[in-house]
Amino acid sequence: MSKIAGSVKPNRRHQTANNERQIIGWREWVTLPDFGIERIKAKIDTGARTSALHAFRVTPFERNGVRFVRFFVHPVQRRRRPEIACEAPLLDERTITSSNGQTEHRYVVKTILRMGTREWPFELTLTNRDEMSFRLLLGREALRRRMIVDPGRSYRLERGEKRKQKGEKP
After folding, report:
1. Range of the structural domain that residue 65 is part of
2. How far apart are CA 157 and CA 82, in angstroms?
3. How far apart are the C-alpha atoms of 66 and 74, rounded to whole Å?
4. So what's the pLDDT on residue 124?
5. Within a domain: residue 170?
6. Residue 28 resides in a domain
7. Span of 2-6, 76-80, 149-153, 156-160 with lowest mean pLDDT
8. Chain centre distance of CA 56
9. Which residues have CB under 8 Å from 22's CB, separation 6+?
10. Distance between CA atoms of 115 and 30, rounded to whole angstroms?
11. Structural domains of the chain, count
């Protein structure tokens, strides 16, 4: 069964507590709840403006006069299973230039990103990242005014939550 992302409207629950920026590592475990992806490893890339999700069998279609895109995701690195079917309203189509200078036409969708206990709407492009180490790349626009990246650390959010559960300081 497909997961369908609805129209995402910012509200108070999407704002960070006290507008404080949280420190994250260069890679983190995140959730894309609208797509039914409970855990996916993300590379934090402040050199990239746009975020990108590994997607395949990407198919645009129309429903009740609204443009959508249907796609499939392999959320686990170097694995073909599980395979998650997703649908989302099509926000835009853009030509993206990668770090190696190649341009690619991509579909853009808007969904919710959950990092630790925080969540907010963000845009991401759909592309085949099968040859890449990470299935999700989070660009600087997704993190702007919310997170600070410590490039020498990894998985700060996950460890911080475990420490809090054990009563230790994060």
Report:
1. 3-165
2. 24
3. 26
4. 95
5. no
6. yes
7. 2-6
8. 15
9. 16, 115, 116, 118, 146, 147, 148, 157
10. 5
11. 1
* Stated pTM of the model: 0.79
pLDDT band at 7 (very low <50, low <70, confident <90, very high): very low
Nearest CA to 132 among 49, 38, 45, 71?
A: 45
Where residue 83 sits, what CATH number does that domain have?
A: 2.40.70.10
The 10s digit of each residue's pLDDT in 109-157 is 999 999 999 999 999 999 987 777 899 999 999 999 999 999 999 999 8
Task: Please count the other Cβ atoms lying within 10 Å of the Cβ belonging to residue 26.
Answer: 17
**133 occurs within a structural domain:** yes
Which residue, chain included where needed, has tokens 């309203």?
89
Closest C-alpha among 107, 78, 73 to residue 93: 107
DSSP state of 50: S
Single-letter amino acid code for the residue at 75: P
Please report whether residue 104 resides in a domain: yes
